[in-house]
Amino acid sequence: MNDHHVWDIERSIQIHAGMVWRPLGRVSVNSSERLALPKANRRPAIYCFRIRLGNGERRYVGETENLSRRFSHYANPGPSQQTNIRLKQLMLEALHAGSEISVSVVQDQAWIVWDRGRKEIDLNSKAARCLLENVAILEMDAIEVESLNRASGS
Question: What SS3 string covers the chain?
């Protein structure tokens, strides 16, 4: 007697994910020595901070349901927002050392292709944002860019 249902069969899924990164602007330090991020809308997004100094590059990729709110949390993190505190400090140190920091976002033009064809991804879905965020993090490992995401490479 089998201990599985008729529909429980071994199967494989092959998915190709695609997205278009759009430059949003640069991160800087304002006259009050506070982090100044580019103006952002309130839409869901995948975002990438690229920190460049000389030939080196470091990246942080994140996802959010509200890009404007997320950016305000990087500029003014609350005491329990450990990632925001860590990245704010890291970006301030990088800027004072002469690094350039740019931000790119994916807010549309994201899709998956699988056996059912091509499907546009709705970034209002947390699962869809997490999928694309993780694809971007895995790409950093593949192109040998230093990832600032804590879980990368593990």
Answer: CCCCCCCCCCCCCCCEEEECCEEEEEEEECCCCCEECCCCCCCCEEEEEEEEECCEEEEEEEEECCHHHHHHHHHCCCCCCHHHHHHHHHHHHHHHCCCEEEEEEECCCEEEEECCEEEECCCCCHHHHHHHHHHHHHHHHHCCCEECCCCCCC
